[in-house]
Structures are given as structure tokens and as C-alpha cells.
Amino acid sequence: MIDSHDAAVAAAHEVAAALAPGVIRRDREGAATVPADALAVLDGSGLLGITVPAADGGPGLGPSTLAEVIRVVAAVDPAIAQVPQAHYLLVDVLAAHGDDTTRATLYAEVLAGRRIGNAIAERGGTHAQDLRTRYAGGRLTGRKFYTTGALTSAWIAVSALGEDGRQVLAFVRRDAGGVTVDTDWDVIGQRATISGTATFTDVEVPLVLDYAGAYEVPQQLGARAQVVHAAIEVGIAGGALRDARAYLRERARPSTEAVRAGAVTATDDPHVLHRYGRVAARVRAAEALLADAARTLDGIGLIPADAAEAARGSLAVAAAKAFGSEVALEAASELFQMCGTSATAAKYDLDRHWRNSRTHTLHDPLDWKYHHLGAYELADVQPPNHGQL
Length: 389
Description:
- By secondary structure, the protein is of the alpha+beta class.
- It folds into 2 domains: 5-215, Butyryl-CoA Dehydrogenase, subunit A, domain 2, CATH 2.40.110; 221-379, Butyryl-CoA Dehydrogenase, subunit A, domain 3 (Up-down Bundle).
- Helices cover 50% and strands 11% of the residues.
- The strands form 2 sheets. Strands 1-4-5-8 form a 4-stranded mixed sheet, covered by helices on one side.
- The longest helix has 33 residues, at 307-339.
- Keywords: Oxidoreductase.
- It holds the Pfam family Acyl-CoA_dh_2.
């Protein structure tokens, strides 16, 4: 079991190194090929259990460790880095609201390298959390989309409305009768997440907990989930910068105008130097903001003292997520401006950085994050208490 921050980060680097050779193939194949080998590396790394509380047999590592682990992996393959995002949220949900039996059962699975996938969002309603999935009589029926991680998980956490109309979280085995997870995931980026449709037809539910109550009190579940999303974006930004640097040093030629101005190599071009320096500074700023947000969550803990503490954590992560997303898109676009036309060759697959970021940044609106930051700073309005902030 990984039991320290340094060990977790070292394991993340090992996972990233193992993922690197296949990242272009996974991006190109998307849902046509389930990335079973890549996910086996992740699941077998020990990283799935790093946030399991010490009281439940885990190392109890916090958001700073988790954010750095995800950033390191996402810099190489952000799709694989996103697969366990909901897994870590669910580990937190269990810590805050799980009963002894549910915690003991699922934490034992997690510490053994068995991942929990999500089936929370739905299509067809007024919004993604307008639920039609129902839990009654110990059984579950419904249809979900954006089910990142569900296809290859051991367990799936499914949000549903119980018989009393309150939202519950039902944990079902991936291989249970009545569970079907499809590969109908056809998007421009984050292709290897295979976040398609899951259908549940009269599925037996062995474990269930009240989920509505999690957001009826001050909570950091949303912020802790969002810091993982922020780390994915910051990782993409760093990966784009890394690939731009390698291309400029190893492959790029100076433009005709740069040669006329005296440049011998692409890295002699003053405009390339300016653009690269600007992007590099912004990537470092995004990394620093992410680290600061994660440290803020470390200090608050999973269960905040009050609504003010919860707001402090949520807003710190909102700033990191919004800024990191903008920098990821910028770095992925500026890569081509710096490296030139030849860098657009399909064999390099450098456009994956932009496609991945563009897809992932739409997970939840960035404008609302800036809105809540502004409302708090200018009018002392606390942010809403939900899972996207």
C-alpha cells in the first residue's frame, strides 16, 4: 500500500511512463478499443487507495497528493487520468456518509485495486441531474450517460430517486445481472474515457446510502471532486508545453521571415521565444494555483467546520479550475503557432492536447466559477452548495 505523498507521486510517474508509448494509439482508437491494458496499469499501481481514510485501513492521503498524482498522469494521458475521477469522489462520499458495512465492503475492494465507476448524469431531462432512474424494493432501473470509468470498473455508483423521492447512491457490481455498459462514446477529445451509456434493468442493489443529505450540509465533496478536474486541465497544459518544447528543439525549422531576420533555428525566432516564455509562465502559474487550492482543501478537511469554510475551499478550487482550463486551451493552441505547419501532421497527434482540453473544459461551465468568485469578493455572496463547485 502506498503510504506517503512521495511514494504516491513516484507511483504516478511510473504510471505515466507506462502510459506514454500508447497515448496516441488510444486517442485515435477511442471507444473502438477499450484501454484495458492502460487501466490495468492504473488499477494495479496502488493509487486507487491513496485517499482511503487511515481509520478504514488506508493511508489517508489528502487533496495535495491526489492533485499532484492526477496532474502527473494527465500530462501524459488525461483520458486515463479522468477515469478514476469519480472513484476518488466516491471514496470521499463513503468517508463522510457511508455506514460501517458499506465502508468496510467497498474500501476493502478499493484497497485491493478494484475501481468504482460512476453513473450519475442523465440525458433527456431539463439538466444532467434531472433523474429518472429509480431505486425501489432493493432494485434499480434506469439509464445513464457520461459514465466515466463504469465500463471497466468492479463497482458502479448509480444516483437514483428512492421511493420517498430522495436521491440515493446505489452501489452495484459491474457484472451484476441487468447491468449493460455501452461504448457509444464518440467525441473529439478524452476519447479513451469511453464515457457512454449505462443501462440498469431491475438490478439487485447490495449497498445504498442517502446521497441527498450529502449536499444539505456544508461539504467539500464538490471541491474535492473539482480539484481532480482542475489537475487534469493543468496536466494537459503541462503536456502541451512539454511537447511544444520537444518539437521546437528537435524538429521545427524557422519560418522564412525568421531566417530573413537572422534566425538559424526555430528557437532563435524572437516571436517563438516570446510565445513560449509567456505560455511557460502561465503554465507555472496554473500549477501554483492548483497546488494552493489543494493545500486549502488539506487544511479544511473532508467535513468543513461551517459554510464559510466550505465556501473558502470551493472558491479556491474554482479559481484553479477556471484558470487552469484557460491555460490548457491556450497552451494547446499556441503549440501550433510556435511549431508551425509541419506540427499539424497527423502522425504527431499534437492536436489531441486541444481536443482533450476543449472536451474536458465543458464538464462544468467556467463562467459560473468566475461568477461565484466575483459575487463572493464584491457582495459577500457564498457560492452554492453543490457537487460542481
